[in-house]
Amino acid sequence: MARRVFFSFHYQRDIWRVNQIRNIPNIAGSAAAGFHDASLWEEAKEKGDAEIKKLIDEALKNTSVTVVFIGANTAGRKYINYEIEKSIARGNGLVGIQIHHLKDEDGNTDAAGKTPGKLTAAGANVYKYADKDKLAARIEEAASAAGK
Q1: Of 14, 15, 41, 100, most Cβ neighbours within 10 A?
Q2: At CA 57, angle to CA 51 and CA 59, rounded to 5?
Q3: What's the pTM?
Q4: Position with higher pLDDT, 35 vs 111
Q5: C-alpha Rg value of the chain to the nearest Å
């Protein structure tokens, strides 16, 4: 059975990077709080904060680990703290994965971003993305640390 994982990241800036590492065997991820395409994100933004938080809450259901993909501007993202707080409240395992070094759709890498403070405060480990096998191992480590 696949593990359900919530993927938290800066949608507009890092979706291309995250798409390169999705579809890990035995991992079923929820992209950007369930925003599998830009139209859903735009619709949620028009409805406001409450609707976006509702979508985040729905996407977190039945997940056991939250992966915070850390790009150049992830720490400043509006909903990052909410996603981390809700993940902690659920008892999800947490892990940070740096992705700034992956290329975007134009072939550019990015500057390293700060680790979100709530992720650091939660004691989550942070790693630089290397490959899918190592990411899957980090997810399992986070699940074990959370007792999941």
Answers
A1: 14
A2: 105
A3: 0.88
A4: 111
A5: 14
